[in-house]
Amino acid sequence: MKKALVTLILVIILAFQISPAYCKDLDIDAAAYILMDAKTGSILYEYNPDVRLRPASTTKIATALVALKNGKFSQVMTASQEAVSDIGVGGMNIGIIPGEQMTLEDLLHALLIVSANETANIIAENLFSDRKEFIEIMNKTAAAAGAKNSTFTNPCGIDEYEKDADHYTTARDLALIAKECLTFPAFREIIGQKKLDMLSPTNKHDKWNVLNNTNKLLGQSFNYGPDTGDDRNQFTITGMKTGSTMRAGANFVASSVNKDGLELISVILGVNNKPGRTVFDFTETLLRAGYENYSSQLIIDRNEIIRQVVVEDASDDGKLDLVTNGKVQAILPNDKNLWKIDNKVTIKEGLKAPIAKGTVLGNIVYTLDGINIGKVDIVSSRTIDQSFKAKSKAYVNKITSSPVFKYTAIALSVILFFFILRKTLRKISRRRNYKIKQRHKWQL
């Protein structure tokens, strides 16, 4: 009886672990999701962000990052038989032939636009000595981007073979990898293309078929917030990557931007697509929530007084206001009651005159959930002059601490020493001569 009860409990636990979760607040039926500010990495929404799941072809974002960091677009790569064959049953491909030679630039376009599996393998085999070394670098590169819970075993995302049983990542890790990719203008240019129609002729292909981007939302704009009668409250999908397998479900990493320049990264994993409730629908829902409820907020403005201090050796009362030398803005909830910002103020101790206006005397670092969202210097609001007494003391210290003074003092000390030594020796000599004379006198 007890054994049966334990078995039932385990079955229930496992069921909850593998079944897509349902979020009533955002109405997103997915295993995990996250919405991240592309600039700072701050998290706007998340659900199961660190649960390890199968990424399918969103893996290719990590593959692209390795290529962008280690390769050159002009590098010519040769396709092996294994590279074009090891793409999984029904794996997406563009028909590259063994022995075909293509540039890394063309391979990356096919990789990111139409999700061609063989291009990932070709890049992996040519960028380093073999695919194994590429995977090692791939995992290290992902970890360096902040991905702490990912294990990649192949460059394209297939998960049907036993050798790829440990191929996992998380929503948070994918968002961080995508954030790193967006620092490369070439990556932005590629993911923003709706069609693959610019591949160069090769030794095996005179021309290529035109194929559509797997990102069905690319270039679409969506409204959010109050209807202003114009496109002010709109965001546009700028790119990124889809991924889908039987085991992974439907996955989608998306990037978007609104008219204010607020760029967000959304990651949705483990969706069982249904009419009107696809991974694309949930992506729209998540991004709309972000733009409706978050915006760039002013945390602190320029010239705000942080603290008043008393400066030593001042010509007046020495009271000095320390002010900010800039402003800090961050993506935060529109409802300020939801702000959970921490700040660390650092100010130099033992301040002494003179201090010029605008001198940096400290800083404030703002963090949100451990992520640095801004920093501003603290400067002096006015000039503080030294008192006459302090100036005189400083002048004397300057003179006495100068090398010339030190060498002069040493020289004078040596001269004085020899003068005293000479006087002493003369005195001793005179005494000795006097005693000799006296001795001679008594002898006579």
From TrEMBL:
Domain Peptidase S11 D-Ala-D-Ala carboxypeptidase A C-terminal: from-to ranges: 294-386
Pfam families assigned to the protein according to its UniProt record, in alphabetical order: PBP5_C, Peptidase_S11
Binding sites annotated in the UniProt record for substrate: 241
Keyword terms: Carboxypeptidase, Cell shape, Cell wall biogenesis/degradation, Hydrolase, Membrane, Peptidoglycan synthesis, Protease, Signal, Transmembrane, Transmembrane helix
Transmembrane region(s): 404-421
Active site: residue positions: 57 (acyl-ester intermediate), 60 (proton acceptor), 115
Catalytic activity of the protein: Preferential cleavage: (Ac)2-L-Lys-D-Ala-|-D-Ala. Also transpeptidation of peptidyl-alanyl moieties that are N-acyl substituents of D-alanine
Keyword Transmembrane attached: yes
Family named by the database record: Belongs to the peptidase S11 family.
Record function comment: Removes C-terminal D-alanyl residues from sugar-peptide cell wall precursors.
Annotated protein name in UniProt: serine-type D-Ala-D-Ala carboxypeptidase
Source species: Ruminiclostridium hungatei (Clostridium hungatei)
Gene that this sequence comes from: dacF_2
